[in-house]
Amino acid sequence: MATEQALSAELSRFLADKNTQPEDLLALRAFLRARPAYSKPTSYISDIEQRLELLRDIRKKWEKAAVQMQFTAVLWSALMVIPLEQLRDIRDNPFALSIIKSVIPDTTMLLKVFLAKPLSQDELTHAGVSKKRTRSSTYSEARSEAFLDERNLDKSYRDRKESQKCELRDRYCVVTGTANPDICHIFPFTATNTPDRTTSGLYVVYTLWGEQVHQKLSRMLVGDKNIIDTAMNMVALEPLLHRWWGKAMIGFEPIEKIENGIRLRFRWLSKTKLAMKDEVAWDLNPLDCLQPYADEGGNVKIAHSSTYRPIVDGTVIEIIAQDKSAIPSWDLFSLQWDLIRMASLCGAAEANDDDDWESDDDDDDPPQAKVERTTDDLCPDSPFMASPTPVFLPLRSVPVQSQVQSQVQSREPSPTKFSQLRENSPAKSSQHRENSPAKSRTGRVDENNPW
């Protein structure tokens, strides 16, 4: 009752204020009339106590075998989000220690591919790329898709048709209703240039999520029939949310398949005190290392553009497609939900990209002259971040020298079926697309953004 009286008094003052404009009254009415869909969220890490108990059991095996290896935050984060039955199967597997040890490099690889982060020299070698990596070579590698080649004009047109499908389907930001959104990839577009890395990262899916999930995702993300640059892997988001998504500050939790679409729960994620390579305790409780971004005093919040209602944790989003080929992929949104939670837990999105660079005294500056674009466009803060200015590409073929060469690397056998898959996988080839020219786009599709 006291709250209602206080609100009534505030409303009277608001209406009596000489500075109150007609637009303010319309906004207030829209706010009061809106009934946004909401689904009460649970902790985004489920079954914490059961997981910690299973990890303690695995740790006992680890200590008994005197395994000399760090248990890192990135591996811990994966074991915190995989299905509980999968974690239980690992605990009961006689080769549990080999399983855990085998997935560490691939877990890091998968997260870095998902976040479009550069790889260290060891990670490049693990993925089958042997050449020493320098600042300039990796800069060229990361930006190689930005160069237009006339040979790819037909393919570019087909890709533009896919982004138009997404634009037609969503029209506005699916969260805030804002006009002129970015067309974002759920799994990053840059993965089309590095299929070997995606394949390497997906080995951890085979081991920790299971063979069935691995088979589905491999068909979607690797090979000539992948759906990475299709509307099924796209969603419209306003630039600020696009950037926050890349920083693992928000995520999208799939909650239901609906007719011709998907229902998602918008989630606010928390900031971690950890870094990917930190050694952590096996039974570390995630609640002990997570802190809401709002607790830092930052203004991390956003509202719907039409109703002015705040977008809260648990806001329900529906994406409906008239064209069945544009229905968002449940499996890719599910993968996103697992990986974005992992990134939130282990600090992957905040990783310092410069940690793994090799020095290159001969070429310290990026090759800005190769593409007609602004300095801001060349160096975005986040792989998800949308460029605020148009990007103009020269209408001519621009030769790009490949900076990274690939070669097939043999991998140590593992006592699990997983290692047999690793050895026999046809995707572990030396055929790289590191120097593939960009697929030309126009409109709100971000030329500079791997997502």
TrEMBL record:
Residues 173-253 form the HNH nuclease domain. InterPro entries: HNH_nuc. Residues 351-366 have a biased composition (Acidic residues). Pfam families: HNH_2. Residues 411-429 have a biased composition (Polar residues). Residues 397-410 have a biased composition (Low complexity). Residues 351-451 are annotated as: Disordered. This is HNH nuclease domain-containing protein. It comes from Amorphotheca resinae ATCC 22711.
